[in-house]
Automatic annotation (TrEMBL):
The gene is hisG. The keyword Amino-acid biosynthesis applies. CDD domains: PBP2_HisGs (cd13595). It comes from Thermoflavimicrobium dichotomicum. This is ATP phosphoribosyltransferase. Keywords: Amino-acid biosynthesis, ATP-binding, Cytoplasm, Glycosyltransferase, Histidine biosynthesis, Nucleotide-binding, Transferase. Its EC number is 2.4.2.17. InterPro entries: ATP_PRibTrfase_cat (IPR013820), ATP_PRibTrfase_CS (IPR018198), ATP_PRibTrfase_HisG (IPR001348), ATP_PRibTrfase_HisG_short (IPR024893). Lacks the C-terminal regulatory region which is replaced by HisZ. Pathway: Amino-acid biosynthesis; L-histidine biosynthesis; L-histidine from 5-phospho-alpha-D-ribose 1-diphosphate: step 1/9. One of its GO terms (biological process) is L-histidine biosynthetic process. The lineage of its organism: Bacteria, Bacillati, Bacillota, Bacilli, Bacillales. Belongs to the ATP phosphoribosyltransferase family. Short subfamily. Catalyzes the condensation of ATP and 5-phosphoribose 1-diphosphate to form N'-(5'-phosphoribosyl)-ATP (PR-ATP). Has a crucial role in the pathway because the rate of histidine biosynthesis seems to be controlled primarily by regulation of HisG enzymatic activity.
Length: 210
């Protein structure tokens, strides 16, 4: 049995589509809007569960999932002890610094983010002292209401920034979704995991049309 941790949210549909294209017969009932968090397909030897994206590497590191699909942004933040097997080239976006276009931040700016480790590392590398404020979502709100001078967040279409009068200032990293594996599972289930990687690679090389 191969257990796969899937991320809820923006990646889910694309990831599911990619797995189906790679030959996994995942029934329609496994949908993000359903409240059901697990799906087992005994005849296919597969088991899936749906987790918050930030938690996917944790489930994989602890081995309750053999493999998982997760954004590079989460891997950069969580730094879990897992194998990163494949760039799935889906859900491309950027992890960026953004803020109000006309805002001169103070000497010791406040930075709001869902990615406190990434933000702390980035500003340290820049030699800039900042106060990082950890929020759980709607990060764009922070500079508008005066909680922070800058944000570090995902920019995909740029629409959320634009609609809130903010601009992208610096790109920290480009992000796509990755296939990750538990180290023990990779050793014990090499054949299954390698086969899936090969299937996914050929789908990716044909051009991902999801
Ligand atoms: C993400 C991210 C931005 C937005 C960017 O939020 O945090 O807010 O999407 O996408 P865009 O550039 O296409 O507008 P998400 O929808 O995941 O929810 P959250 O605000 O709760 O984090």
């Amino acid at each position: 049995m191969l257990t796969i941790a899937m991320p809820k949210g923006r990646i889910f549909e694309e990831a599911l589509c990619l797995l189906r294209q790679a030959g996994l017969a995942i029934p329609e009932e496994f949908a993000e809007h359903s409240r059901k968090l697990t799906l087992t397909l005994p005849e296919a030897g597969l088991s899936f569960f749906l987790a918050k994206p930030m938690d996917v590497p944790t489930y994989v590191e602890y081995g309750v999932a053999d493999i998982g699909i997760v954004g590079k942004d989460v891997l950069l933040e969580e730094e879990r002890d897992v194998y990163e097997l494949l760039d799935l080239q889906i859900s491309p976006c950027r992890l960026s610094v953004a803020g109000k276009p006309d805002w001169k931040p103070p000497l010791y700016p406040r930075v709001a983010t869902k990615y406190p480790q990434v933000a702390t590392r980035y500003f340290k590398e820049q030699g800039q002292q900042v106060e990082v404020i950890h929020l759980n979502g709607s990060i764009e709100l922070a500079p508008i209401v005066g909680l922070a001078d800058r944000i570090v967040d995902i920019v995909s279409t740029g629409r959320t920034l634009k609609e809130n009068g903010l601009v992208e200032l610096e790109v920290i990293a480009t992000v796509t979704s990755r296939l990750i594996a538990n180290r023990g599972s990779y050793r014990m289930k090499t054949q299954m995991i390698t086969f899936l990687c090969e299937q996914l690679t050929s789908v990716i090389q044909e051009g991902v049309s999801v």
